[in-house]
Amino acid sequence: MDHPDSDGLLAEQLLRLTRRLHRAQKRRLEPLGITPAQSRLLRAVAQYDTPPRMADVAARLEVVPRAVTTLVDGLEAAERIRRVPDPANRRVIRLELTDGGRDTLRALRDARRGAAEEILAPLDAAQREVLGGLLTSLVNGTDLRC
Questions:
Q1: Is the confidence at residue 2, as pLDDT, over 60?
Q2: pTM of the predicted model, to two decimals?
C-alpha cells in the first residue's frame, strides 16, 4: 500500500499558502499604486542607517542592478524615493526615502498586517504562537527535535 508523500504534501501546502498570502498582499497594495517588487525595494532602503548605494540594494534583494534601476525609476516618478549623490564620491548614487516613501512604508506595513490577519484568521492565539515558532525554526534552519 502506498503512503502519501507527507513532505511533498507539506511543501505543496506551504507553496499554496505562500501564493494565497501573496495574492492577499497584492490586493491590498493595489490601492497604494505600488507593486510587490517596489514594496520590497522600499523596505530594503529603509533598513539602512544611511542612504544605500543602488548596488547595495541590488545585492540585498539578490537581483541584478538593472532591476533596481527600473524599480527606482518608478518609485522616483511617484516621489517615494530620490537619487542623491554620495557626498564622498559624486559618481556614486545613493537612494533616499522621501516623506511619501515613508508614508507608503507605513501603509505597506498595514497592508501586510491585514493580509496576514486574513490568512491567520482561522487560528487562535495559541495556534499562531506555535506556528510562529515552527516558521522561525524553518526560516533559521534550526533543528525542531527535542
A1: no
A2: 0.74
